[in-house]
Amino acid sequence: MNQTSKQSALSLRVAFQGEAGAFSGEAARKLLGNDIELVPCPTFEKMFTAVEDETCDYCLAPIENSLFGSIYQNYDLLLKHNLRISGETNLRIVHNLIASPETMLGDIRRIYSHPVALGQCLNFFSQHPEIEPVAAYDTAGSVKMIMESRESGAAAIAGAAAASVYGARVLVAGIEDDRQNYTRFLLLTREDRSSEPPPQTADAADADKTSIVFVLENRTGSLYRAMAVFALREIDLTKIESRPLVGHPWEYSFYLDFIGHTAEPRVRNALAHLSEFATSIKVLGCYRRALN
User: What is the pTM assigned to this prediction?
Assistant: First the structure.
């Protein structure tokens, strides 16, 4: 990072959902470096609002997990809030068994964590039937809770960063069932600064991925026509997601990620073609794709 980027990064406030030590914080540092201020938010809605009302410069939204699938709430918030995608990263999710320093594995009778994290560690629970999984609102928040309460026999499942933040220790590392567990995060900012490449990322000219959302008339063949717009121009689609259109039962908005820059003639032509029959279309961002 050059000196100018380092200075600008020092003043960046990045909102995320959860408590300090969350995976989102790790993903934010992966994208922007360590010299940022992480701002925890209790909900995804408040995280988006923090950027929209200029309390924060960016927010980091988990959008899909390689095992769990899409995080639908954040797809809906992308349409509700006027933010732009300016970057993305894929983070390997490593779940660790974490407890207070004096707690031993044999002492544990309850493990707290987010339901998704608990569900991704079923093999561990099958090997330890005496331990009860207990759902909580957040992975890192579970570590914070057991360290504050000092509940006897309690542990948590979270990232290693949470153990460091709250003075706990990792009892067993990597207890997830599947090592191919990744979460894709989107870096979001306001429209008025979306043309500024985030510090420690490529120049805006290096952007090679685009995300859009569009709505089609509810008629036979409309989605086929939309896909043909990209297929005819050999544009590689990497993700498609449909979400119910609020106020219009059985109608949907379609989120699409594809490889290509909005400045490319074939991409411009594809979007112009799509706009001829889509009832609405919005570019959510053009950014450099995550290759890891």
Answer: 0.89
